[in-house]
Amino acid sequence: MMFAIIDFPRDVFLKHFLSITILVLFVIFCRQPVCAEPYQQLETNHFFIKYVDAEGKLAKHISTTSEKIRGRIIADIGYEFSDKTMIILAPSIEEFQKVQPGKERIPLWASAVAYPELNLIILRSPGAIKGGRLDYEKVFTHEFTHIVIGKVLEGRETPAWLAEGFAMYESSEWHLTRMASLTKAFLTKRVIPLEKLTANFPNDPDEAELAYAESFMFVSFLINKFGSKAFQQFLRNYAADGNLRGSLTKITGMHLVTLEKEWLDYMEVRVSWIPLITSATTFWFVITLIFIYGYYRKRRIARKTLQTWEQEERENNAPP
Question: Cα–Cα distance between 186 and 134 in angstroms, integer?
């Protein structure tokens, strides 16, 4: 095998050598944060939006829709505040981790995070998401609801069912998976008691899915049965005295035990096809299908978790 050898004049050789050297140095140093693309900023009546040039179109879209979404959530909660909320569109997974306050490590599956105490929302841009697809209006609605609830209840411990249930209610996050989870819980008599949805959600993926579904249903039950004005009053009462049970009793007129029973009945009506299963064979066939669905879903989640761990391990072991 033969190669053609080009005989460069000395001045041309030096010129190319210097060009290559500069290029190599540029590549090396641009791995450092100092060469990161600078953020631009948009300002609206209620938001600051930080983004890189490549996400300018998305930033403008968010600047328009965020004001509309904010107005609806503020009206639903019945609480207004004047401080502008900061939104950061992180252009990469690395940047998404880097801009977290306190350098807190966020799970790779998270597409956004809200910090009510800082009035801050951080979103992953399409370039930081596999496939580049995300319903930004739905995600923003969920995260901004967390911000407003945090503002209303500042200084109080926000119940998990309220934080997640109301965020899901505002962003209309209800789908077949959660209905299946709720149906399975009623069929197997494994509904999670309301008291256990107050502090934290379970770690088990299936139990956590059920906790989200039940939280959505409890918030929906409160608003649909007692009205949005009563729900707003509940928030004000709890913010004022910190008495969660007492605040619920004031707006419902029920002891918590009675209220929980009414809520269970409310949920059961929404899976009302259960009484139609009169045949024992059909009953157990349906249960089998639900458990098969749950089994394969659990395997899929476990596989994704393992892939996440492997990716994090590769990132942690990568050379600086």
Answer: 32
Tokens of 6: 């080009």
The pair of structure tokens assigned to 121 is: 């929302």
Written as one string, the DSSP assignment of 108-153 is: TT--EEEEGGGTEEEEE-GGGSGGG---HHHHHHHHHHHHHHHHHT
DSSP annotation of 107:
P
The C-alpha atoms of residue 76 and residue 166 are separated, in whole angstroms, by 10
Pick from 51-55, 95-99, 100-104: least confident:
100-104
Cα 299 to the chain's mean position, in Å? 22
CA distance 116 to 123: 14
83 domain-assigned: yes
DSSP string, 35-72: GSPPPEEEE-SSEEEEE-GGGHHHHHHHHHHHHHHHHH
| CATH number of the domain where residue 107 is located | 3.40.30.160
* Averaged pLDDT for residues 73-96: 94
Domain that holds residue 111: 40-152
C-alpha 244/C-alpha 239 separation (Å) is 9
Residues 70 and 119 in one domain: yes
**Amino acid 27: pLDDT:** 43
In angstroms, rounded to a whole number, what is the distance separating the alpha carbons of residues 190 and 141?
Answer: 31
- By CB atoms closer than 10 A (0-12, 13-18, 19+), residue 127 is middle
Q: How far is CA 109 from the centre of its chain?
A: 9
The C-alpha atoms of residue 160 and residue 164 are separated, in whole angstroms, by 6
Of how many residues is the chain composed? 320
Last residue of a domain, one of 117, 152, 187: 152
CA distance 161 to 210: 11
The answer to whether residues 234 and 128 belong to one domain is no
**pTM confidence score:** 0.74
Structure tokens given for 126: 């399409």
- Least confident segment among 36-40, 142-146, 216-220: 36-40
